[in-house]
Amino acid sequence: MRNRILCLDVDNTLGDYTSGLRDYVNACTPRYACPDPMAYDFTLTPGWPFTGSLRNFLWWHKRAVASGLYRREPPYPHAADTLNRLHDDGWRIIISTARRDDPDGQTARWLRNNGIPFDGLHYGDKLDIRFDALIDDKPATLERAARDTDAIILHPDHAYCRNAPGLTFHDWNEIPGLIGTADNPDSLQ
What we know:
The protein is an alpha/beta fold and 189 residues long. It has two domains: 5-15 and 75-188, 3-Layer(aba) Sandwich (Rossmann fold), CATH 3.40.50; 17-72. It has helices at residues 17-28, 54-66, 69-72, 79-88, 106-113, 139-148, 175-183, and strands at residues 5-8, 92-97, 120-123, 133-135, 152-156, 167-169. Strands 3-2-1-4-5-6 form a six-stranded parallel beta sheet, sandwiched between helices. The radius of gyration is 17 Å and the shape is globular. The relative contact order is 0.17.
């Protein structure tokens, strides 16, 4: 029997990208509220210096990454402990991220520095990976995975992905139970 594969995203799934970007913006200019995004596209949320402008968002993102955003992004509570438990239980963990702008391997160092186990690091489309479970926050990815795979789909309880396909979690400690529940389709009735 092969090990089951867990594919998971980093930003706003494993690590709190919103808080990291908010901290950077507030260090540069404290006049913005920088609320939690109401849409996956940050430019649609009022109160950020780039509201309404993808070009401005990319400028702020690039500056934040160059200043170490990926190194300083706080991991969500219980994520490392949960992933270590799942890894010990035989799950292979593949980190899959769209971070094509990952300078100097910050993502791999961040994972190691935060005690997060991983068996592979993939930059690109998550559906390129044959996984048994997916944890992500991007509604379009969750919809594609629900449509094109028979995998267990999980996502955090962010406002912008709350109604996406899959099982919603509020805390990383819930994930082993949700995966166990999802493994038994009869228990979802």
